[in-house]
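Q: How would the structure tokens look for this protein?
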Amino acid sequence: MASRSLPPLDSREASTPSCSFLLTPSPAMSDHHAGGSASNHSLAFRVMRLCRPSFQAEDSVFRLDPFDLLAGEDLFSNPHVSSTIIEQAVHRPNSLNAGEGGDDFSFRGRFELQDPSDAIGLPGFLILPQSFGAIYLGETFCSYISINNSSKFEARDVVIKAEIQTERQRILLLDTSKSPVESIRSGGRYDFIVEHDVKELGPHTLVCTALYNDGDGERKYLPQFFKFVVANPLSVRTKVRTVKENTFLEACIENHTKSDLYMDQVEFEPAPHWNASILKAEDCIPDNNAQASKVFKLPLLIRAGGGIFNYLYQLKHSSLDSGQGKVPGSNILGKLQISWRTNLGEPGRLQTQQIIGTPFVQKDIDLQVVEVPSPIILERPFLLNMLLLAGPERKKW
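A: Here is the predicted structure in token form.
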């Protein structure tokens, strides 16, 4: 049995989320100005990461009334507040915390469950991310970039470029050389959005440059660098065991992110001359909803921070079905295609490197049992039909 951990995952094309994003500043990014101080430039880049909000669970069911935003708990003891306003507030029919009669605005009923959903502790609000957050391999990095003019003069003929630099390559995301921005007025800005499918681990740098004419007509060059690190969301450990003519592959997938992952697809793509089928526990149990499961497949949940799930595949060499022997050295089994979504539907997609099986050597002679009589009587001779394959061409004897 061979047991091994795969090298870092390689990313395949990751689909772009379809719903709208909300903007959040990215304080985790560091910017460095080259070619002089930032005060010498009229323009400056600001980068915000586009990502989805999250649900914030409350520690208790102490609920917020919208009227709390306008008045505090000292409303009733404030002598400057008109009794008419208090009377209207107390008897508001639309108060979220009012009972059936709508006449209890005090804080004594804030912990009472008015609805079964109150016990979940979800206030129904989405919370914007408060930090740059983590970026994982296989995701789509989406960024909102704004170049603003903070000087008293107009910037003209602005050529803007944005690119991603990694340890191995540079990827151009935006280039306005052929159609420069004609003008950015004083106090104005020019905004754009860039996207990049993250396919490498390690440090990344978002490089934003601007070439423009300032108020004195001088041609200036402004580069700014924004750095972030890409982490590995999953680890895949594999075990390969060969039993006679069958090869079994076990893949253990572990979640290293801080959010739950819903696995949309974990499929094994076999190499040429191999056929693969997944083995599941449900295969041995009759499924009354088999037809419905073919139409709609529920995603598999792998918990955050170390959740694990194992997949088992059975592989057969296709040359055995045609009566030929295995080809020496063909121990590459194939690779895994993995796609997932986070809690709010952000997609990710990865593929592993080639998985190597147990090496084997071509046999000069192979003896196979073709037919065994049934029943066999003790201490009596019986006929056994056997097949002898010899030579590189696997001739029958």
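Residues 4-36, 93-105 have pLDDT under 50 and may be disordered.

The helical segments are 83-90, 290-295, 318-321.

Upvote if useful.
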